[in-house]
Amino acid sequence: MNTSKHYFAIGLFTLLGFILLAAGCVLFGGADLFSKKTYFETYFDSSVQGLDIGSAVKFRGVRLGSVEAIGFAGSTYTLPEGADPRPSAYIRVLCSIDLDAHPDLAGDALQGMVANGLRANLALQGITGQLFVNLDFPRTTPKAELPFPWEPATLYLPSTPTTLQNFLNVAQDIAANLGAIDFSEVVATLQTLTTNINDVVVKADIPALTASFTQLGNSLTEQSERLGEILSRLDAARIGDNLKTLSDNLAQTSDTLRGEIPALADEIKATLADASALLRQANEALAQARKDLDTRALAHDLDDTLSALARTTAATEALVQELRQKPSRLIFDEPLED
User: What totals of helices (H) and strands (E) does the chain contain, helices first?
Assistant: First the structure.
């Protein structure tokens, strides 16, 4: 009887231990078994010291999930025969995103963000030395993605070098450039330059140059003072008044001429018209006289006279026509601009 009670107590204690263990698993992480997650993986070609399983995955400071696994890519994927062995040394980081907290990243949403430039890098969490996976859209065009010959088992999210890695790369480039400099040649060049400068300074007559510059400065000062005196003697106000008066007189004369020239042209035209009528009458009289006089010499003279009068009449009419169109020709050689 006592033995049965003893076994019963041991069995009850063991059962209660299993129940408590199951409850602890559910309370302290077992709930993750029932949460909805989406996974992605990224690769790093540098050290991930400070990144651990369970480290945060953040997007611009907001926690999305955690790191699920860290290891060499060669432990998950097999390289084809003859392929470059370097990708097998990539560090493969498998990450998860909690879809219960971020349902907007379900389906193809995360893949669309990757297509639009979303990249992963390692960021330092405070001063603890711990790293986390940071997701963001780089401001600058990211470098080429790491090449690999396998098909990723989950969504592949390309990575960019960390800030520390960028500094290390720059430092390596600077060290390489410094190593390529021939410092002995640089020193020799500087010594030669120093010697040449000393020779020039020794050969140059510094006191004479100083005296020349001083004389030049004094001359410029003297010329400046003379120019000031000349300008001070000019009566700028009086000159301006005279110029204004001259301009007003020219404008008044131009207006007067513009008003009188058309009337003068009309008078000239009337006079020329009367002269033309008189000439026509004289022409008629001479024609009648030619009928009466039968003298060849007289006829010839009359013909010359009439021809000259006809040309004069035509020239006069042309002059009147031009004066009517351009009356300023009476005063100026060229017509005034309106």
Answer: 7, 7
Structure tokens at 333: 């050689």
Q: How far is CA 47 from CA 28, 121, 130, 312, in A?
A: 31, 12, 13, 113
Torsion of CA 159, 163, 168, 173, to 10 degrees: 80
Phi, psi of 130 (to 5 degrees): -80, 145
For the sheet containing 155-156, what is the strand order?
Answer: 119-125, 130-136, 56-59, 62-72, 91-98, 37-44, 155-156
pTM: 0.45
Identify the burial level of 43 via C-beta atoms within 10 angstroms of its C-beta, where 0-12 means exposed, 13-18 middle and 19 or more buried. buried
Bridge partners, 131 (sequence order): 124
299 near 290, Cβ under 8 Å? yes
Radius of gyration of the chain (CA): 56
User: Given the structure tokens 């062995």, which residue do they identify?
Assistant: 85
- Going residue by residue through the chain (338 aa), what tens digit of pLDDT does each one get? 456 666 667 776 777 777 777 666 555 554 455 579 999 999 999 889 999 999 999 999 999 999 999 999 999 999 998 889 999 999 999 999 999 999 999 888 999 999 999 999 999 887 777 999 999 998 876 677 899 999 999 999 999 886 656 666 666 667 777 777 777 777 788 878 777 777 776 666 667 767 777 877 777 788 778 777 776 766 656 666 666 776 676 667 656 656 655 666 666 666 666 666 776 776 676 666 556 555 555 556 666 666 766 676 676 777 667 666 666 555 555 555 54
Distance between CA atoms of residues 60 and 43, nearest Å: 20
Q: Pairing state of beta strands 119-125 and 91-98?
A: unpaired
User: How many other CB atoms are there within 10 angstroms of residue 57's CB atom?
Assistant: 23
Query: Which residues in 127-153 are b (16+ Cβ under 10 Å) and which e?
Result: eeeebbbbbbeeeeeeeeebebeeebe
Report the alpha-carbon angle 134-140-144, nearest 5: 80
Measured CA distances, 166 to 60, 143, 146, 172, 337 (Å): 20, 12, 16, 10, 75
B/e letters for 223-247, b = 16+ CB within 10 Å, e = fewer, are: eeeeeeeeeeeeeeeeeeeeeeeee
